[in-house]
Specification:
heterodimer; A: 304 residues; mainly alpha; flat; B: alpha/beta; 5-stranded mixed sheet; 4-stranded mixed sheet; 22 helices; UgpAE/MalFG_permease (chain A); MetI-like_sf (chain A); ABC transporter permease subunit (chain A); transmembrane (chain A)
Chain lengths: 304, 578
């Protein structure tokens, strides 16, 4: 019997399974049980009846969202911003990892790596606070530099829609690049040094080594990380955008996440917010499944 | 008896002794009577038959959850004050503040959790406040106790049942809504005892640095139009004035409290109150500002100020710390908005400008007949809710107010021959030198307004305590600056000609409007669009932004809402104020 065998195996490796238990419990309690709350997306929530007792109302919230004049703009903004963070950003941590890998001085490499990791540990409130100070009109570092070089020095960068994407993307790269490069660096360090030695004996240059050995070797890691990140394509990073939003750039910076908070939670419409959130999750899930299939067919690399 | 037996008996005796000692300590001193420091309280003078004071309610703990900012209230109560309340009423009060980015988020989450303590409190200026729709939904869904039968038996809150006591909005919009058929599920607080009374003589709006006004030989009170304000700003810019750090000043700096729209800078270029933007035109047709020429006029004015660098470039968005810094350092030659009770201005080095006239009429002070500020409700799960109502009534009585506003007699104040409190000098000194230490004394005068949550209503400080401000009767110098500015502004003169308003703010009916949510979103978008339009490169671009905002308003039912306002205003019970 398969079940009997399974129990035997579990009993045999009971300590390993025991070590796995907290992790399983964590996901069951904090990820799977709360999924029950998703039924709110189809219910007219009443304070006194609770989630399970409230009456079902079908797809009303979904219809309302797509009838809202803002919905298309919100989806467009979300896709543009998350697209930039997924596709445009993708090479940045890889390039940084490749650069770190080529630094020979151990001390310098450690210092450079530490400096690049640090912004990851700052909250977006701090980072956006810094951005606001640096870009402030008249008194900000950038404007003062421009003024000292004979320029105007009074540009209100955060109020000008023309600068929004640059500021959003620049601050995202600054905050995330160091931390995200770690996993690629780990993948690079796992490459067999014999391959580099063989390439050098064949007369390959540094560029050739990177192109023909390093990148192909870390390609499975790149693909898996990319597939997983597709799951959050409709979540473009709530805190950063909520904080960077000004009346000047709001037509570009309003995304589904900020909309959920503003209309859903601050307006007390839990059901509506859950419906939009559920939609984000479902589309992300479908994309991950599709990308995984595609990747398996093309490159033999897949998450499952 | 063996050695073990002796040890057991000894341990038992020690424990028994300890328990006896503890239980004695927990009893109210003198059986609940209060003779502490010889305080002349009703309870001490008129003990009830059973030896308990007349103010006794019940021996229980009352827990309250506060959905309001931590700056105004604190969970930490002073031990002596807490004990005094216990001695007088038998109630042990415990408060918890729900911390949230926005108080309304906490309120929604708290009610949705269903796990509410004995009472909850929340912001509620008027029935148009966003919190209203949340508590209304909760009340309709049976989450709160009907308070009408409970307040009938009280001394202070029973006034709420009198015909002319409550303002219209509180009466029909907040508490005794027609749909509730006489029931009421929340109490609206901070209602003045007398209609049209003012609890504080606020002078608000733009303030100019006195030295700059003097140098330019300008009397700030003569500035009556936005154009005159513009000319003044130009003179300031040309004057090359510096702040305390030697940097050039901004002619018009942001509000003391951070970036925001300041209607008082250009009332002649605005339509309705700046938080409503709705009023009727000469023919009685209700209009939103978006439907008038005023938005574009104001945009043109602000763009001119921005282009000529006469206004701080982040006037509408700057964070509070930087805005306050600009005021304290004198970097703002004109502070966009502040009031006369700011301590840093006790020497009156900033003077109020104007007030500026409206577009279609000269300035006239507007006074609310009465207005609310916060509210409280008792969840339907609370046992013996009448005890919470009685406790609130105690806190709203003069005796209760004396305790939570002035502290403990002897420790914090003395009483004069008329029975009015005279604040002790050391309390005022501590408040001035170390406000945080003073706050620990635990009453409103030093910054802990816990009692206001349930007892801050039926307000008439002059009648109750013989002074408008805490400590003013003994130490008028505390408010020398504020009072000087009141005189400078001729507050009393303007108050004589004031218009007294009683009614609903125009946006109060969003909750009952069928497309209220969409319209609220479109109104928020309009406000954001205005700021965006201020920063566009030219007026054509600004016009496009504003046209798009108007379209969104109309798509969300603005015209129907204006018709609704017309109907509401025609009914005496739902008059709209503007």
């Amino acid at each position: 019997m398969l079940t009997g065998k399974l129990w035997k195996r579990i009993l045999l490796h009971r300590y390993l399974y025991l070590m796995l238990l907290p992790c399983l419990l964590f996901f069951i309690i904090f990820s799977y049980i709360p999924m029950g709350g998703l039924m709110l997306a189809f219910k007219d929530y009443k304070f006194n009846l609770g989630i399970t007792g409230s009456p079902w109302i079908g797809f009303v919230y979904f219809e309302r969202f797509f009838n809202d004049y803002q919905s298309m703009n919100l989806i467009k903004n979300t896709l543009i911003i998350s697209g930039m963070k997924l596709f445009l950003y993708l090479p940045f941590p890889i390039i940084l990892a490749l650069m770190f890998n080529e630094i020979r001085g151990k001390f310098f490499r450690n210092v450079a790596q530490s400096i690049s990791y640090l912004p990851h540990f700052l909250s977006w409130v701090v980072v956006v606070g810094l951005v606001q100070r640096v870009l402030a009109p008249d008194t900000g570092l950038l404007n003062e530099t421009i003024a000292n070089m004979g320029g105007d020095g009074s540009t209100y960068f955060l109020m000008e829609p023309d600068y929004f994407y640059q500021i959003m993307f620049g601050s995202h790269v600054w905050k995330s690049i160091g931390w995200d490069s770690i996993i690629y660096l780990a993948a690079i360090s796992g490459i067999n040094p014999d391959m580099y030695e063989a390439a050098r004996m064949d007369g390959a240059s540094k560029w050739r080594e990177i192109w023909h050995i390093t990148i192909p070797s870390i390609m499975p890691t790149i693909l898996i990380l990319f597939i997983l990140s597709l799951g959050s394509i409709l979540s473009a990073g709530f805190d950063q955008l909520y904080l960077l939003r000004t009346p000047g750039n709001m037509h570009l910076s309003d995304i589904l996440d900020t909309y959920i908070i503003r209309v859903g939670l601050q307006g007390g419409q839990y059901g509506y917010a859950t419906a939009v959130g559920l939609m984000q999750g479902l589309i992300g899930f479908i994309l991950v499944v599709l990308a995984n299939r595609l990747s398996r067919r093309i490159s033999d690399t897949s998450v499952w | 008896m063996g050695k073990k037996g002796s040890i057991y008996i000894s341990v038992f005796l020690i424990l028994a002794l300890l328990l006896t000692a503890c239980s004695k300590n927990n009893e109210p001193a003198n059986g609940g009577k209060n003779e502490n420091n010889g305080t002349k309280t009703e309870n001490a003078e008129n003990p009830a038959d059973d030896g308990k004071p007349a103010t006794w309610i019940a021996d229980r703990k009352i827990k309250g959850l506060v959905f309001m900012g931590t700056d105004d209230y604190t969970e930490d109560m002073n031990v002596e004050i807490k004990q005094k309340i216990k001695d007088m009423t038998g109630i042990e009060l415990e408060l918890e503040i729900m911390k949230a980015d926005h108080s309304i988020d906490g309120l929604i989450a708290g009610i949705a959790s269903g796990d509410l303590p004995d009472f909850i409190t929340f912001y509620l200026n008027n029935s148009g406040r966003p919190e209203m729709s949340v508590i209304l939904k909760a009340a309709r869904e049976g989450m709160f106790t009907d308070l009408t039968p409970l307040i009938k038996e009280t001394k202070v809150f029973s006034k709420y049942l009198q015909d002319d006591y409550l303002p219209l909005d509180t009466k029909y919009g907040v508490m005794f809504r027609p749909e509730f058929n006489g029931s009421s599920y929340f109490i609206h607080m901070n209602v003045n005892r007398e209609g049209g009374a003012t609890t504080r003589k606020y002078v608000g709006g733009p303030f100019i640095r006195k030295d700059i006004a003097d140098t330019l030989k300008v009397d700030p009170r003569t500035i009556k139009t936005s154009e005159q304000l513009y000319e003044l700003a130009k003179k300031i810019k040309d004057g090359g004035f510096k702040d305390t750090n030697g940097n050039a000043v901004y002619p018009i700096g942001p509000s003391y409290w951070g970036g925001k729209e300041v209607g008082a800078l250009y009332p002649d270029l605005s339509w309705g109150a700046s938080d409503q933007r709705i009023k009727p035109d000469k023919d009685g047709k209700w209009l939103h500002e978006a439907q008038t020429e005023f938005a574009m006029k104001r945009i043109e004015f602000v763009q001119k100020l921005l282009k000529e660098k006469l206004i701080h470039p982040e006037f509408f968005t700057i964070d509070e710390s930087r805005a306050t810094e600009a005021a304290l350092n004198g970097t703002s030659a004109i502070i966009g908005d502040m009031h006369n009770y700011q301590e840093f201005n006790n020497d009156m080095h900033y003077l109020p400008i104007g007030p500026l006239d409206n577009a279609d009429s000269p300035y006239q002070m507007q006074v609310d007949f009465k207005s609310g500020y916060s509210g409280w409700a008792i969840p339907s799960t609370t046992k013996n809710p009448e005890e919470i109502v009685k406790f609130a009534d105690f806190l709203a009585s003069r005796e209760g107010k004396l305790l939570w506003q002035y502290g403990i007699e002897g420790r914090d104040y003395t009483l004069d021959e008329k029975g009015n409190p005279k604040v002790k000098q050391e309390v005022l000194d501590l408040k001035a030198s170390d406000p945080n230490a003073a706050k620990k004394l635990g009453f409103a005068g030093v910054g802990n307004s816990f009692g206001e949550l349930l007892g801050g209503t039926d307000i008439d400080r002059m009648a109750d305590f013989g002074e408008m401000e805490f400590g003013e009767s003994v130490h008028p110098e505390v408010l020398a600056g504020a009072n000087g500015l009141i005189e400078y502004f001729d507050w009393d003169g303007k108050r004589k000609d004031a218009k007294i308003n009683d009614g609903y703010p125009p946006l109060s009916f969003l909750g009952e409007f069928d497309r209220g949510t969409e319209l609220k979103t479109a109104l928020d978008n309009y406000n954001d669009s205005l700021t965006r339009a201020y920063y566009t490169k030219n007026l054509d671009e600004a016009k496009k932004v504003m046209d798009s905002a108007l379209k969104q308003l109309q798509a969300a039912g603005l015209d129907d809402y204006m018709k609704l306002l017309e109907q509401k205003n025609a009914d005496e019970k739902t008059r709209v104020k503007y």
